[in-house]
Each structure stands twice: as C-alpha cells, then as structure tokens.
Design brief:
With 491 residues, the protein is of the alpha/beta class. The protein folds into three domains: 66 residues; 266 residues, Aspartate Aminotransferase, domain 2 (3-Layer(aba) Sandwich); 113 residues, Alpha-Beta Complex (Aspartate Aminotransferase, domain 1), CATH 3.90.1150. Helices cover 39% and strands 12% of the residues. Helix 10 links the parallel strand 4 and strand 5. Helix 1 runs parallel beside helix 3 and helix 4 packs antiparallel against helix 12.
Amino acid sequence: MPNPIPAASRPRLDPADDLTQAAAIDLNAALSDLHSQRTTAPIIRPSRAEDVALLIDHSFPQGGDSLEQLVEQISRATKRYPRRNTHPGFFGWIAPSGLPSDPLAHAMVSLLNENVGGYWASPVGTTIEKTVIRWLADLVDFPQQSQGVFMSGGSMANMCGIASACAKRFGPGFRSQGLAAFSLESRPVILCSRAAHFSIRRAAVMLGIGTDNIVTIDTDDQFRMRVDALASALAEHDNIICVVASAGTTNTGAIDPLPQIADLCSTQDVWLHVDAAYGAGGLMSAQLRPRFSGIERADSVVMDMHKWFFQSLSGSLLLYRDPGWARQLFSESSDYLRMNEDESPEQFAFFSISPELSRRFRALPFYISMRHYGLERLGRNVLHNVQCAEYLANRVRNEQDLELISAPQLSILCFRFRPDGLDDDSVDRLNTTIRDRIQLEGDYLISPTRVNDRPVLRVCIINHATRAEHVEGLLASILRIGHDLVAAGDE
C-alpha cells in the first residue's frame, strides 16, 4: 500500500511553486538569433552524437534555468550543428521552409492549447479547421459533402486513407472481424507504382496487410505508373483494397496519369487513393492545376501543408470524397464521451473520421497564413519554384558534361555530371563525391538518391525563398567541383 497523503482541511500551494505567471520574456528579442540562422551557411555541418550531446544539459531538471539561458543553449547548439531546411540553397529532402507568419501562429496555438477533437471541445478550432479543409477541398474540386481531417503527417494520413479503403472493400464486418476474415479465399492487395512513397509499405505493415501483398506497377520513361500494367494487375487480382496513385513522387516529382487510372478504378469499383503529399501545393497555382487533372475523381487524397504549402511542421490533410467509410471505421463512444446520431455541426467530431483523440490546433497557422498571404500569392511562389526547376533543367541540357535524367514535372529534377571518357562506375563515384563536396562547402545541399539504380544529383525546389541565383550558384558549384575532380584524376 502506498503511504497515504496527509489530509488537509484546505490545500494551499506554496507561492514558490505557482506556475500561472506569464513567461517574463520578449519573444521577438529571444528568438532573433534563431531567426537570423534561417538563411546562414553552412546549411548542415557533419557531427558526432557525442559532440552534439556536449552542448545539451543532461543533468536532471531541478529548475532555475532562465528562459533566456535555455534559448541561448538551443541557439548555440543549432548554430554549431545546423540542419537548415529554411535556407534557400536547401535542395535536399522535401522539407518545410516555414512562413514568416508561422512563429506568431504557433505561439497562438500553444497559448490557446485547445484540443480540437470536435465542436463541443473547441468550437472556434473546429470551425477554423473545417474552413481550411473546405478551401483545400475546393482546390481538389471535391464535392460539398466531402470531409477531411488534419493529421501529423503524410504517413499517418496515407495509412488512414488505406484503412478507409478497407472499410469500403470488406464492409461493416471489417471493423469487428479484422482483415483475417476477408483473406480466406484470396489475399487482399494494394496496387501502387514502383515509385510510390515507402509510407505505403509502412501502412501495409501497420494495417496487417503485409508488404508481400503490395503489388508494384512498372513505371514508364517519365517514372509514372504504366496504365497498361495497372490494367493487367487489376484483371489478375480479385481482392483489391485500393490503388494508390502519386501526384508528385518523392524521387522525381512524377505525376501518375490520374484520369486513366481513375477510369480503371471506376470501372471496377476500386478505391483510388492519391498521395499528393508533396505535389498538392501545385494546386494553388492556376497555371499548374491542369497537371493534376483526375485528382478530383479520387476517393481519398493526402496533401502535406509542411511541404509545398511552405508551412512549418506539422500538418497533413486527409480528404475523403465520402467520409461515411471512415466514420464506419473510426466512430466510437465511451461512458465519458458519448456520441449521438445527430449530424448537426455542433455534434461534429474529427475523431469519428480519424484515429486521433487529442489533437492540437493544427489548422490555425494554415488559416492565418492563407488569409494573410492569399492562396493565389502562395500559388505564384509555387509556380516560381517550378520555373526555377525548369530553368535549371534547361541549363543542364545545355552543358556538355551534364546529363538530364528526369525533367521536372513539378519542381524536382535529377541529373548527372557525365564527362566523356568515363565508364559508368567512375561516373557513379564522381557524382557521389560531388554531392558530398557540395554539402561540405555548406552553401547548398542536395540529398542522395538513385534513379535507374545509379546515383544522381537530385534537386528539389520547394522553398519560397529560393531564387534563380541560388540554382545558378548550385550549378556553378557542381561544375567546378566536377571539373576539379576530373582534372585531379579523383573520379
């Protein structure tokens, strides 16, 4: 038995332990050094875990550190060992650049600290989230009865979209009986292209489908799903959970042929899930929107705000054309939280169409930035990214020692430094070394990847601060390093 806590007639907290006082700190002044780091070089500096650990206080927290001291500690550590997704020369992973309005908006989220589970828990938060979702659903041209929910990231959103596809494929019994009950006569499969994001494999693992039951479809010479190969796979399998198409693959930015894929799925009544986590920002541009033709016919769509919508982490929107299947899967009640059949706005719950109960006010930064900057202005910045990518691709085409591997369908392109007289293995080593040297110099960063089983120089442009001079500088650095390596015989 635990020792009893002494009873008191009227408990009183010692004033020294009072946590209700506002933090006595000027946020703008405190964060000014962190703000200045956003665009300074190096973008990344090699580190060892033991060296980084030396900059962080690991002693048990007894209290007493001032907020200024803690900000200075973190600022010093990130200045010494940065990883600046915000830098205009960051061309690596599909990472968030963040908008100038985000610090204010995220501070408001923390100060309000609302759990946006549904209207009764957060009337304003729910209304704002549903408003932002409607704006984005209109970009996709989804019907008015569609619904959506903001989740932590594209991986969770993809999994929930596929889970809802299971609810439609197997019916009401799926919720209670699980996948095993519907796998007796034939294995349930997911169809996606070889270029699909690896979160689809992870979703298959977490949902109990298994990675062996993902049927990968070959891609064409533009790295898009081959429609003829998909048609053959649809004819071969009779227990199909869904088809996953991509609107902007991670490696090359390819957009699968969505209208033809939608035709096939419609004919066979198969759920079409579109992973537009990266590419959906292009929907904000009227000039780019036609490239996404067919996305409006999907059953579910995923788009990440913290990718090409320029927002800070984190928020990924999962849109349902018909939310009834998700509601069939996720609706739940308990003794302390009962839902009724009233479908009025006042009874709306986000956790009835997704697995999360505790949910931060994710939509507030998006609402503030979209109203402040406007979707059209944000879209013009997206278009500028694409124009920078196409400009770089043209420069690559005109350089004798460069070879364009994948032209930009959006804002990603891949190419190789390939001078005459070198075999493939030498070219592979040369390009890997160029990429490493670029990172060490610190002004630019490109992430490692392979296309057609060969290392390439992949450039991803999704930063609102990137301009033509940054891609020109990157290209000049690649050519300089490549030529120096060849002259030194280091290929």
